[in-house]
Each structure stands twice: as structure tokens, then as C-alpha cells.
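Inputs:
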Amino acid sequence: MDINLAFFVELFFHVLGMWWVIVPSILLGLVVGAIPGFSAANTIIILLPLTFLMDVEVGLVFMIALYCSSRLGAGIPAILVNIPGTAGAAATPLDGYPMAKQGLGQRALSISFVSSIIGGVLTTVLALVTMPWLARVGFYMHSVEMIVVMLFGISLIASVAAKDMIKGLIAGFFGLMIGSIGADHVYATPRGTMGFLELYDGVPLIPALVGLFAISEAFLVIEKGTFLSKTNVQNVDNASWKETIIGVRITLKRWYHITWTSMIGLIIGVIPGAGAAIASFVAYQQSRTFSKTPEAYGTGHYEGLIAPEAANNGVTAGTLIPLMVLGIPGGATAAIMMVVMQYQGVPTGPRLFTERPELGYGVFMAMLVTYLLMAFTILPMSRYMSRVTMVSTTYMSPIIIAFTLVGSFVPREYMFDMYLAFAFGIIGYIARKTGYHVAAILIGVILGPLLEQYMLRALKMSDGDPMVLFSSSLGNMLWAALVITLILPAFFKRRRQSKAVE
Amino acid sequence: MNEKEQPISSPKKNIAGELILPFCALLFTLYYFSTVIESPWTAQVNAFMVGSVLIGVIIIFFITRTIMLLNGKAQLHLNVPRIHSSIKTRQSGFIGLTIAYLLVIESFGFTLTTGLFFWGSMLLLDYGKAPVVKGALAVFMALAAYGIFILGFETRLPKGVFEAFLTGVF
């Protein structure tokens, strides 16, 4: 079979013909993405028997559509009610929620959708073209390089803490300490578990996410009565389709921003073990570093919303590359896809593209078609979704509490995780009431254990010699890039100040 | 008390609240150290690196706040005057209901507890208005949650009388 333009055009229309699978999967994906704890991977596992009954092509298209739309769905509650559906959307409320609080929820959703869709389309096309080379990125990323990538994400704590550095650092390092709870990676010594067996595997992410953001928010909004002030309620009430179009226009104007932040997502997505959370934190931090208005981040800045959304959708294409090209799943959803493909007798890795090229390339084409169809199915919904912010807290607070507590129970099915979510809710409530940023705590909880894991691996291989951290050329280049990105904001600030004086 | 009689609000910053989190963080870090003190170095390296930085930052924070107190720029008191007392009562009641929800869900099952939680908290937050309407809404939402989570996603949520009854019926 010749792999040329005609092949791709034919494949595109063939996949488009499966819209009857894609559209319902998009809607299902939005729901599971929006409820914390209900990830695409969980849903695919639940529906696995159904997937086995489907034709392999239809099954893969179903999984891809669900995967892509759940990533996008996770951003919706993050923007509207400050509850990220997954850890990958944890950086979205930093600027999305302030926009919603200003009565600009519809515009924020529109920006989020368009940047996610464009980011997803761009990275899918790029993945199709550069698959063989991108797949090798994982081989060059060893423990040392991963440590630096993690530090890129962790450096976001400093940005989040910009208004009060000491309090930000306390929140971030407290998060890192909480993230260190659990058995150590080499000898399985329990550390800081307070005797709870459920914490031996570390602090589960969903209860932390749900507690810090959702439960603390539910307790806080009672003090206000509504999510919005009276003026902002009027803004939402009077909003027309124009708000969606303004959002689209704002996002399209920032196409360069989407391009480079989604590339960050694609590259981080290719690295096995890394994921959407790291990608969105790194993209947000990089976006802020090179911005001309870094002080506007965290107040409802458009670019602060575009960066994490474009990046976490860039991850979707990246995660599938190692599976398709090398036969190594890059994430949970990719691993489930591999199981389905093996069950159906479809090879993964290089043989896939020689024996079944229509399936190998078809997976990425399904991703492309899903993103394109999402533009027509999701974008019009932004006007109606934004009205969630007008619902009285009398109804919203109990719903948030009950559904997110259930969400924290789902991944491991431990009652303990519900109690843990409540405990994090209290920590989050105290933190917010006293001026500490819950996002800084969450960054620590998410990235802390990963950083420790890679650092231990590196130190173990070098018999405890810390100089191993500077032992690889790629690692040293990344260190240099990290130092530059940490210094640049101060340099830019000084330059802006001197220009302002002139 | 009319507006003229009200005391002029103090410009001093109340720092009592912002000491809670660093204090908790400090206690937790010291506890964490105690759990790894006799462990192999692989279990200690991260704790001591992160923990020592955290303790350092907390010490700096305490010093800055002490200086603020000594200079008369800050004060220490535990009352939270900005929240109206009725809101405080509703908020405390809602937190209490959440704790009760967590405690009884395992025995009463997900659907019944969730329905009662919805009803109780909606009534509490809306000053007891329209109990029948809220009751109907709570039943609808609890059944919807049962449909979505237990039937739809086959989540193994705690089962009680209601789930047993439905299993018997179907």
C-alpha cells in the first residue's frame, strides 16, 4: 500500500464516516472528564467488554474520541467552579476561574475549547509527520533529564507565589512533603503514613485534587451565596453568542502561543511516565516566563488559560506515539488500547505500519477527526455551560461535595480516600482563607513523588554521587534552559521598568 | 449601634490565621523526620532535602511575622469578624453534615445517604425554605446519581437498604 497524500485523504474521509461512533463518544468523554475520578482510562476499562465486541477499527476510534474529549472535558468544571476534572487540568483554573468569576465564563470556555482543539489538531498532524523521530525522545530521557523536566514544573510554584513568595514557598514545599508520604521506592520503608495502610502507595492524586479545589470551594462559596457578584450575574445573563465568537477571535489571534505550548505538551507526552499534569504546569510556567505581562497571570489572563489547555491536549497525541511506533504504551489509556489491539490480533510497534498501515495512521486520523468534530459539537455549548456559575450555592455546594467525594472514592474504591479528600478540603479551606495558594500545594503533591523517584534512581545508579545530576549532555542543556527560564522573568521585568522610566 | 458609634477599623493585619498552615507544615515535617530517622538513606534523602528547605522558609516566615508584631504592624487574635454569624452557622452546619455524610454512607449506602445529605444541606443553606420541593429535588438527584455512578459506571459505592431493595426488584 502506498503511503501518500491520496492515502491520507481517503483515510480521513473513512474515519469521518464513523461520526456515529465519534459524536456519542465525545459527549461521554466530556462527562467522564468533567467528574473528578472518572478518567477516560477508567471508562474504557468499564466498557472494555463492549470494545472487544466491536470491530477493531470502531473500537479504536471509540477509545480515541473518548480519550481526547475527556481531556477537554476536564477543563470545563476547572473554569466554571474551580474544580479540575483531572490532574491534567490543574493549571486551568489559575486563570480560567478568575475569568468565570468576572462573568466571563462563556468566553473562558470558548478560549479553552478553541485552544484545546487547535492544540490537539496541530500536535496530531505533527505526530503523523514526525512519528519515527519523536518516538526516540523517550530513549534519551533518563532519570537525570526527567529530574530537570520535573523542576521545570515545580518552578511554577515560584510564579504562583509571586504575590507573597514566602507563603507560596511554604505551600509548595508543604505539598512536596505531603507528596513524599508513602513507602520509599527502594526498600519500601513506610514514611509519614500515620499508620494508614492506604497511604503506603503514596497520597492518591484525586482525593488531593478534589479536596484542595472542590471541597474547599464548596465551603467557601457558602460565605458568598453565589459564585458571581450581582454585576457579573448580569454579564452572564446578558451574554450572547458574541461572547463565544470573541473567545474564538482572542484565541486565534494567539495562534503562536497555542503552537509552542502544544509542542511542549507533545514532547512531554512522548516521555513515558510524564503526563498532562506536568505538561500543563511546564507550559503555564514557560508561557508566563516569556510573557510581556507576567503580572496579569492568575487574574484571568487569556494566555494563562490557553497555555495549559493547548499543552494538555498536545499530550494526547504524544502519549500514543511510543505505543504506535515502538509498542511501548506511554500512559494508562495507551496501555488499554494495546490490550484491545492484542486481543484483536493487531500488532503494535513497527509491524503495525507495515502490516496494517490504515490502523496505525488511522489512530492519529481518528484523533484529528475527533478534534475537528469537537469544534462543531462543543463550542456551541459554551453559552449554556457558563450558566452553571449562576446557580445558587444552596444547590451547587451539596452537589459539589457529594459528587466529588464519590469521584475520590472511584479510582481505588477505598472509603479512606473520601476521608482523605475531606481532610484536603479542610487544608484547602484554611489555605485559601489565609492567603496560601492551593495550586502550589497541589503542584508539590503531584510532582513531589515523581521527582523523588527519578532522583533516587539517578543516585542509586551513581552510588549516591550527586554529580550524576550533571553527567549527561542533554541533561546539562536542560539545566541551562531551566536556569535561563528562572532568570529571564527578572531580566524582562528590569528591562520593562527601564523602558517605562525612559 | 449606628455608623458613627462604630470603632474605626484597625489598620493592623491579623496574622493569627496565616500561622495555622506553617505550624501544621512544621509539625508534619518533624513527624515525617521521626519516621525516617532510622531508615536507609534512600528513604531519607528526599525528606531531609525538602523538609529542611520547608523548615528554613517557615523560620523566615515566623521571624518576619514576629518583627511585624513587634513593630505594631500586625496583631494576633482568633475571631473572624468578616463573616456574618448566620453564614458562619450555616457553614459550620454544612461542614457537620459533610462529616455525617462520610460517617454514615458505609452503613446506609450511597443513594439513601446522598439523598438525605442533599435534602438536609439544601434546607440548611436556604434557611429551611420549601422543604417539599427540596425533598423532591434531593430524591431526583440521588436517583440520578444512582443511575450514573452505580448503574452506568458500575462503581462499587457503599451499598445499603435502598441498593439491596433495587437489586431484589431487578
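Residues 13-75 of chain B form one domain. Flag for discussion at group meeting.
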